[in-house]
Design goal:
The structure is a single chain. By secondary structure, this protein is an all-alpha fold. It is 48% helix and 0% strand. The chain contains 4 helices and no strands. α2 runs antiparallel to α3 and α3 crosses α4.
Length: 66
């Protein structure tokens, strides 16, 4: 895929057309998880899957958000 070879051009984060979260929400997901929040509860609160929460917290998705 062209974005794999040109990551600076690829839309990421909120600019990605299919993004369900904002950067502020991602920071909140990370904060809740660090405080011991359960994946299921965080996922339900933000309307995403448990896998998405896990990928965010493991810096696979949204890795540009500290």
């Amino acid at each position: 895929h062209w974005a794999d070879t040109n990551p600076s051009v690829a839309a990421s984060g909120e600019r990605h057309g299919r993004s369900k979260l904002t950067e502020i929400q991602v920071l909140e997901v990370k904060r809740l998880r660090l405080q011991g929040g359960l994946l299921r509860e965080i996922a339900t609160e933000f309307g995403v899957s448990e896998a998405t929460v896990s990928l965010i917290c493991n810096r696979v998705h949204w890795k540009h958000v500290a």
